[in-house]
Amino acid sequence: MNHITSEATVISSLLNNRYKVQYYQREYSWKTKQIQELIEDLTNEFYENYEEGHTQEDVEHYEGYFLGPVIMTKDKAIIDGQQRLSSITLLLIYLNHLQQSLDQQVDLNHLIFSSKFGKKTFSINVPERKDCLESLYEKGSYDEKENDTESVINLSNRYRDIEALFPDDMKDEKLLIFIEWLIEKVVLVEINANSEQDAHKVFVAMNDRGLRLTPVEMLKGYLLSEIKDNATRNKINDLWKYRVLSLKDLEKDGDTDFIKTWLRSQYAEFMRVGKRDSEKKDFEVIGDAPHKWVRENRERLGLIRSKDFEDFVSVNFEKYADIYGDLKRYATNFNKNFEFVYYNADRNFTLQYQMILAAIDPEDDKETIEKKIKLVSRFIDQWIIRRVFSFRTMNYSSVLYTVFNITKEIRRRSLDEIASYFKDYIEHKIDYGLEELDRFYLNRYTARFMLHILARMTAFIESESGINSSFVDYVNRDQKNPYDIEHLWANDYMQGKHEEEFESRQEFESFRNMFGGLVLLPKDKNRSFQDMTYEEKSRKYFSENLLARSLNQDCYINNPSFKKFMEKYNLNFKPYEEFTKNDLLERQQLYKEISKVIWNPDLLDAEL
What we know:
608 residues, 3 domains, five-stranded mixed β-sheet, GmrSD_C, GmrSD_N
């Protein structure tokens, strides 16, 4: 093997070059889960250093954070690490957009691309990705095309994930400090080999030799070591291996995620308050080293005798792993009986698994478990929607402490006790609610939820009107012609009577984005309709979903099921020949009333 060098380098140095990706490993394949973990790891590590009042100059004294190795050849061909570097590039593009509203900015352009003769070359230089990255850099969005590759689609989707998952509390004066820390203190080890063959040999050696035991394997080893009988130990080992393999089949790190979620849901009593230099508590230690936490808390867990360790696996571990596996399946495959698990997963609310498992007692029978899954997941759906309608953040770091406290309150309690707690929580502990819908509108924050909300409303009114409808179809972004949010008004202030109704273009644009002025349409029709007047659009809406169709007067002819639905819920649907400012406000109230039906807190009783 020829000469190989390695050097620790920060992002500002590493991405000051341009890299190519070989054709046989070009696909960018990260999913939402990996982006979420990256953002959480980076922001949590940043908060370990940050203190109120710090400036960019203080970053010089911050601790570094190791993001992993990157293996490449001397001619800058990446052999391992393109997933991380591509994701960091997306994050830098997003941060660059975000900082434009500030008086000062950190220069990020040279880390995203280089420019020569008016031509941009992005840091990860793959020709098929250029249009996507350029659009994300210029506009903050990309309109997917029919012939886009898997990498391009994933890049576009992961950028939307970054928009959705980046914490709101990082968007103030901390933003520039975070950017400075990211590019100057996040470290990767750059491993360079003279040839591609040598680079691959390094990759194989690093990934196939001397693998360390994972925390899950160490936890298993500890628990099994405390079981005295050999036959029993072997039986427990087989059970553990079967469950771990089942969880890994669901997702790559399913076993690790389950262990953390289970232990936190059932046993964690404390979590760290504050960030820098504060001591890690149950919640954090379980996340870092669950095997260590169990060993140090064995008496608290009732692990005294050999039989206790046996039951801990054969009863508790087995039962909760089985339930967790079911929850993951409900989250990815729509099941009408457990629809709210799917709805919560569609909004990337990963903490629902902790909350649901917390409610379940080891002694609960199958019927009780299913009722608790339905009850807790429905409450979560109601809680999320109230936060969204009032523009409250749903970022992981912003809601984590609240979720932890709810987790402890509902832990192993009865159905009636949990339902009572939830209804009291909605009535007395939430100072925001569905009345906020009067001013609800589409913006950068609500964009990631608006498709979900309109899909829920559309599927609801169609199902209740006897139409075979599917929420999944409305939110599926992977289908050939996915649904998009359609504005009833074209983005044209000069069109129609807008100049008469609004004092300025800005006022028109704010009203155009209001909740009541939106429906869902297939992407191809959304684009073909976008420049039409409302009068032209409404004629075409008649062939679309019922929410859009209800704007057309023909929808109310020979449609008894729809009329029966309207009467049942006292909903004032009506057609509009034209769509004025007052009509929009009236439609906004209709959407508010529909939302009150769908997210009625009294429906919690339906799960008892």
